[in-house]
Amino acid sequence: MHNQDQQLIFEVSKPGRIGYSLPEMDVPELDLNGLLPVGYVREQEPNLPEVSELDIMRHYTALSKRNHGVDSGFYPLGSCTMKYNPKINENVARYSGFAHIHPLQDESSVQGALGLMYDLQQHLIEITGMDEVTLQPAAGAHGEWTGLMMIRAFHEANNDLKRTKVIVPDSAHGTNPASATVAGFETVTVKSDEKGLVDLDDLRSVVGEDTAALMLTNPNTLGLFEENILEMADIVHGAGGKLYYDGANLNAVMSKARPGDMGFDVVHLNLHKTFTGPHGGGGPGSGPVGVKADLIPYLPKPILTKRDDKFVFDYDRPQSIGRVKPFYGNFGINVRAYTYIRSMGPDGLKAVTEYAVLNANYMMRRLQPHFDLPFDRHCKHEFVLSGRRQKKLGVRTLDIAKRLLDFGYHPPTIYFPLNVEECIMIEPTETESKETLDGFIDTMIQIAKEAEENPEIVQEAPHTTVVGRLDETAAARKPVLRYRPE
Fold it and tell me: What is the pTM of this model?
């Protein structure tokens, strides 16, 4: 850190300064030694900075200015759909009837909130082509696990216990094999062909009587539409397996194509991606899961349903995999997603897909002369470049990402997916203007020229950030996770 920043944070501390005032305690002080085990009671005051309220406010305000978010700059993070969060969503989520209710209130007193969730389920059923939806799962990976647990319950109910393997493409999101493992399955990799799509011959070779499911996102992680999806569904279903849809890339096909029509049996959605809930910072997320009819009995309970014009939770689900999240999910994110869907309408959601695809293809073609393009075909909402050309000049993809920081941009995803050397994965989303896209493109072109003419400036980047180039090995193996006074 710069010296000025160190002074801002800690060195302004002076003994006796306080940033708060509390009334005198009017209850007897507890003897904690009688309540807590020995060793759990602090014997001396914590060594914390002693500063005024003004100092502490300036400290946290300064820290906030160092954060990068979609409200402060372009965020082309491939595979994550970091698009703008409309502020009307925030306003609606703060309505007292939504923000001030308690999750354990009697159903009769929260009919409006339950009605919103029920209506949201119906919208998501229509968008995905599924037969039923649960809003319980807390995020995308949690939705993956929930869907896989339902698939597992389905096979077990049919006494088909030999189905122990989940097939995952080599370009899949890392959460796919992780979720399958946590759900108790073995993972099997299926290769991509020269077009960047699932190799159908390899898929046929790995599908068998032990196949529980194939996990897939369409378009895939390379931003390419799996044009053979119906044949893939026939292959998996013909072997008795299920088809799982990772909804991370739904922004590319929303209102244009439905997973249910492609043959998928289970789908999870990322409301904090496609449907503009706040994304990043550890949450909150929301990963609703939709299923076809034969998997409905295994949905997490309770199921929100409608009886005699009343919205109720149905707990009588003997084959359910059980509750997977308290309080029926992250309600505030559901409100935001519902507001977005109702604000956009079907024509608006279709326009989202069209502009997301247009923006990605525009960027890809403008950058193609300056970087390697592994798959020279129309992309969907995102695309993958390779920095192999720059690597030959001594500039790695990591260097390019760090150089972007000097221009105020969040770097795109790098080194993922793993089947593209020196991978640079870019997703512009539909919410960015042509001027913003052109500014980022021009910066990438400038960095490509620097790699040719002055590689040192890229190799030593970033130059303008509060923290400079880190020792990557030390940062991974010996991270400094908290402040320790000298």
Answer: 0.90
